[in-house]
């Protein structure tokens, strides 16, 4: 009777430990997948921000070029008036 009880207790302990490890492994896999998704999302956001910065810089360069052209035209007009 003592051996049957101890064998049952040993089997119960082993089954609980293996189930616990499997659950922990599943949780760690889920966490890794979530972190991968978060990293992908962060990369996409950074790319969008980089594109927005580039677009803004190009617009600013165009505005500066237009302003310089206007200033050059104004100087030419002033010279022609004198």
From TrEMBL:
Residues of the signal peptide: 1-21
Name of this chain's protein: YtxH domain-containing protein
Key words, A-Z: Signal
PROSITE patterns: PROKAR_LIPOPROTEIN
Annotated region (Disordered), positions in chain: 24-44
Start-end of Acidic residues biased regions: 31-41
